[in-house]
Amino acid sequence: MTRARSLSGTIPSMETSHDELKDNTIIVALFGLFRQGFLPRDVKIVGYARTKMDLEEFHKRATSYIKNPDNNPEVAAQIQQFKDLSTYVSGSYDEGAAFDNLNKHLEEIESKYQSKECNRIFYLALPPSVFVPVAQNLKEHCYITKGGVNRIIVEKPFGKDFDSAQELLRGLKEHWTENETFRIDHYLGKEMVKNLLVLRFANVAMGAAWDKNSISNVQITFKEPFGTEGRGGYFDEFGMIRDVLQNRKFTPTFAWSGRLFRTDLLQVLSILTMERPVSFSAEDIRDEKVKVLRSIPPIERADTLLGQYVAANGKPGYLDDETVPPQSVCPTYAATTLWIHNPRWEGVPFILKAGKALNEAKVEVRIQFKDVTQGIFKDIARNELVIRIQPSEAVYLKLNAKTPGLYTRAIPTEMDLTYKRRFTESKIPEAYEALILDALKGDHSNFVRNDELDAAWKIFTPILHWIDGLDGQRPRPSPYPYGSRGPKEIDAFVAKYGYKRAAEA
Question: Closest by alpha carbon to 186, among 433, 456, 391?
Answer without folding.
Answer: 433
